[in-house]
Amino acid sequence: LVLAAAPSGVQGLRRVPLEGVTSAEAAEALVEFIYGGGTAAAASSYQPATDAINRDVLLLAQRFQLEGLEVQARWHLASGVTECNTLGRLAICEEFEIADVREMLLSRLIANPPWLFRLATDRGIETLPLVMRDLLLRILVMVGGRQQGTACDGDARDHTKKAGE
Prior knowledge:
single chain; mainly alpha; 8 helices; two-stranded antiparallel ribbon
């Protein structure tokens, strides 16, 4: 995607490549934020239609170091969470290292077994091994498992040996 604009009084277009961004709506949000001065009115009007658009906005906010725009996108990521969008939002949290929203989503999953079951049976969870590990650790703590592991004798190859070898 390429953002093209002609500043007033200047002939010709200026082009800014927006690598990795696939939605024109994300580019619009960027322009609205910049020209709106990051005001509260601009923040309240930020309502991306999809999580993919919000992901692109996060990418732009981080790339251009626009903290206010990033805050808006992070707020949207944390609001309107449903059983169906939790996995996608966790993936965004992993990609952009958004620990606070990730923590909130994991806590919500642990508190809601039907959501957790849906997530556990979704093949998409396989792309988020750290999320799977953190969920497993939380469940173990809930059921009274040890909170700290101990070193095991042997190494990872021991787990792949067949019985009788």
